[in-house]
Amino acid sequence: MEEGHVIGLKQGKQNISLEPGGQFELSGAPLETLHQTCAEVNSHLYQVKAVGEEMGVGFLGLGFQPKWPLSEIPIMPKGRYEIMRNYMPKVGSLGLDMMFRTCTVQVNLDFSSEQDMISKFRASLALQPIATAIFANSPFKEGKPNGFLSLRSHIWTDTDNNRSGMLPFVFDNSFGFEQYVDYALDVPMYFVYRNKKYLDCTGMSFRDFMVGKLPQVPGELPTLNDWENHLTTIFPEVRLKRYIEMRGADGGPWRRLCALPAFWVGLLYDEESLQSILDMTADWTKEEREMLRRKVPVTGLKTPFRDGYVRDLAEDILQLAKNGLERRGYKEVGFLREVDEVVRTGVTPAERLLNLYETKWNRSVDPVFEELLY
What we know:
Homodimer or monomer when oxidized or reduced, respectively. Belongs to the carboxylate-amine ligase family. Glutamate--cysteine ligase type 2 subfamily. This protein is an alpha+beta fold. It has a single domain (about 50-185, about 235-370), classed as Creatine Kinase, Chain A, domain 2. It has helices at about 35-55, 80-90, 95-100, 115-135, 150-155, 175-185, 205-210, 225-230, 255, 260-270, 270-280, 285-300, 310-330, 335-345, 350-360, 370, and strands at about 10, 15-20, 25, 105-110, 140, 145, 165, 190-195, 195-200, 235, 240, 245-250, 305, 310. A hairpin with a 3-residue loop joins strand 11 (about 240) and strand 12. Helix 4 (about 115-135) runs parallel beside helix 12 (about 285-300) and helix 11 (about 270-280) runs antiparallel to helix 13 (about 310-330). The two termini are about 25 Å apart.
């Protein structure tokens, strides 16, 4: 509860939170297999659907709100969002769109040591744009095509560059936990939470807080809780907490939700596939990684890379993911069927929707509310 409003739900190790514009976020429990993860998301969506149907509310698997302008999106009653909403326009032109009109699906994977974290962080960060391309699913804005296959991904490039992006330092030889902490200490703060209230600390430094020099709470030192809160306000393409969070994919329909964790588990939880990815991406330059990050939201799998296209990379990477899942021995490869055709044809989910818009839908986005309804 916050100020008399229900703003979240808990059930065992699962949490549901309300994102700024009414997006629904399930944070699942730590699970061992993709079968368990998929069962969890299925049971969640059945619950959501049952409650939603009673209220005449539907839930949509898309990366960007296809129809309504910012002014028509309801604002969820959470103190931290008020602070973010006032701050966003000062640091980028698309932050409010990010908050209120985008929807992602994320995968969280753990690591066993600092070295394991470094390997997984580098591999997943280099490949995040490839995942963005395969799962691109946000081609509409305010009732028409928006010029992007993943507008959601593009929006992050001008939200707040102090706290988002491709983190080039992860590829430095000196990278480890300490370097990430240094980076996080320098990301400007949003707030501290005291006496059930969020205090606006936008632009302040956590380093100052560490020595008791935060003007909002003079003399106070941060708690571990303050630090954990601060870490949730950092939004790079891959985020480090007690696990690694992949943040590059658009929200999508039910059947594709289980494909994303399958993709990353096959690549990162299998030593052989992980090493293959590290070898494949070892000589990618910072400029190449930035180019992929910038261009993939527009051209998806058709983005040129070296002497081929992102689609060629995606084919090799998908094969590594399948091999990794095979070796795990849990019969999980079937979860990747959903993206097989995307990679084989080079046609992203967004392009499929754009084609429907131009043909069967007679240039109306309204049918998307049935097409991608959970």
